[in-house]
Amino acid sequence: MSHSSNAPSPVGSLDQHVPLYHGHSHLRSELVNSVYSQSSYSDSPESTAASSVEDIRIHRSLPTGVYVPTVCFFEETTEDLDLDTIARHAVRLAEAGVAGITTQGSNGEAVHLTHQERKIVTSVTRRALNEAGFASMPIIVGCGAQSTRETVQLCKDAAISGGDYALVLPPSYYKPSLKPNSVIEFFEDVATASPIPILLYNYPGAVCGTDLDSDAIIKLAGHPNIIGCKLTCGNTGKLNRIAAATQAATPSDNGSGFMCMGGSADFTLQMLVGGGSGVICGLANVVPKACVEIFNVYRSGDFAKTQRVQAIVARGDWAAIAGGIVGTKSALQTYFGYGGLARKPLPRPTSEDVKRYAEGFEEVVTLEKSL
């Protein structure tokens, strides 16, 4: 794999001078597998039913396109999981033409869920997709945690719950104590021990500013169980360098199969022009068809129309970014009759908030309903 030049990232980059990936030594790999293959602590008795997905051994590839980090739905008074809405939402997205689903992402309130609830959400999503005729649609599961051990356990939980791939953030809580190569070793160890392939999740805003630069991601891409990345940093130059060095999959060429993904809908076109593979974007919870339309029009060769669609989606994405999970759920409730509330301590939207969110999403929802 060729190694691209690397200009600095806009946020303080991690490990800018690491050597290219040479893989774990055989001894290190054996040690990692020995440590993290030990039995985990028992879960509650309900775990068996929650995680018994019949087809977890089916291999589902990751096609290029739009992936949706699904929001999680709760009963209004109890804040218990609303399993019916979780299932119906997943099917609505699949019917809109998205390439795949991501559970336990930032939009999915993973930090508000217990390990058992995480497994239930993924299991319910998998079963709903299967029953609706989307058995081949892949599920990526957010598996970030602060320790290597817990992250590996989340990857195992994802696998038994019907997840096909894991999306992993770097650790950050003890950031001042980490050495320059600590995060590289973290990802190598997790990838070696995980029963499912992983994607690197670069989201500096969620991890105390830790920003994997393109050198680090290109190095890690050499690990056989690291098959992609999600760049919520929004650095299109970084995406271009990684895509070129890894020969990433594109809508017209599967390349090496490495998935170089953008992290928001507002730079889908830029990602496509830069040689990327797709986007994992929260806006698609509300307007999946509009997000997919950028891909469809781009493939048709109508670049001017692609720009126009991208502009509408970008304005809608700003509403989603500004409103966060609360605004996204409010827009779902206003325009599609479901959505509900986030778990506390996230606030309940006021009537003024609801009106403001509706206005922010109005243009892109109009596009969605025209498709």
Key features?
two-stranded parallel ribbon; 371 residues; 10 strands; 12 helices; alpha/beta; globular; 11% strand; eight-stranded parallel β-barrel
Overview of this protein structure:
The protein is of the alpha/beta class and 371 residues long. It contains 12 helices and 10 strands. It has helices at residues 26-36, 47-51, 83-95, 115-131, 148-160, 182-193, 214-220, 236-246, 268-273, 288-300, 303-336, 351-370, and strands spanning 13-14, 65-69, 100-103, 139-142, 165-168, 198-202, 211-212, 226-231, 259-262, 278-280. The strands form 2 sheets. It has an 8-stranded parallel beta barrel with strand order 2-3-4-5-6-8-9-10, surrounded by 6 helices. Helix 3 packs across helix 4 (115-131), helix 4 (115-131) runs parallel beside helix 5 (148-160) and helix 5 packs parallel to helix 6 (182-193). The chain is globular, with a radius of gyration of 20 Å. The termini are far apart. The relative contact order is 0.14.
* Quaternary structure of the protein: single chain
| Strand arrangement, major sheet | 2-3-4-5-6-8-9-10
Tell me the major beta sheet: 8 strands, parallel, barrel
Termini gap: 40 Å
N to C succession of SSEs: EHHEHEHEHEHEEHEHEHEHHH
Q: What is the CA-based Rg, rounded?
A: 20 Å
Question: How much of the polypeptide forms β-strand, as a percent range?
Answer: 5-15%
Shape: globular
The number of helical elements comes to 12
The helix content, as a percent range, equals 40-55%
| Content-based structural category | alpha/beta
In total, how many beta strands? 10
Low-confidence stretches: 1-23, 39-52
Mean pLDDT metric: 88
